[in-house]
Amino acid sequence: MFLCSCDQCRQITGSAFASNLFIAAERFEWLSGSNEIVAYKMPGRDISKSFCRVCGSGVPWASGDGSRMVVPAGSLRAEPTVAEKFRTFVSEQPSWSSCLDQVEACEGLPP
Questions:
Q1: DSSP secondary-structure letter at 66?
Q2: What tens digit of pLDDT does each residue of 6-27 get?
Q3: What is the CB-side half-sphere exposure of residue 72 using CA atoms within 13 A?
Q4: How far apart are the first and last CA of the chain?
Q5: Residue 20: closest CA among 38, 8, 31
């Protein structure tokens, strides 16, 4: 799992980082709904934003060379089991997203 804080990942997710899993393209199969996917490819970069035009959910997208699928971790119904996690482009991480363990945590919306 890659937690990427690069400028492009922050812009495309609207968050402090993107959380993506990678899988070889030949091991990936759409079960249904692939005809409802819309993709935006960021010019000059191997980055994309794909989403379902029906519900707006972020969905997997193919890497620029087509060799792997990039799967947004938040799009999975179950918690993924991953061998390794990496934080990338930490030099571009916004200061407001560091030290989150020191921010008050609530089970739902605060009162």
A1: S
A2: 888 888 888 888 999 999 999 9
A3: 19
A4: 34
A5: 8
| Residue 24 confidence (pLDDT) | 95
**Run of H or E residues at 58:** none
Q: What is the pLDDT of residues 37-62, one digit of tens each?
A: 999 887 877 778 899 999 999 999 99
**Whole-angstrom distance, CA of residue 77 vs CA of residue 15:** 20
For 37, list phi and psi in degrees, rounded to 5.
-90, 135
Report the C-alpha gap between 52 and 90 in whole angstroms. 29
**Structure token digits, residue 42:** 């960021």
Tokens of 18: 């993107």
Here the tokens at position 47 are 């980055």
Query: Residues in the chain, how many?
Result: 111
Distance (Å, rounded) from C-alpha 79 to C-alpha 25? 21
- State the amino acid at position 20 in one-letter form: N
pLDDT tens digits, 56-92: 999 999 988 889 999 999 888 898 888 888 888 889 8
pLDDT of 30 > 90? The answer is: yes
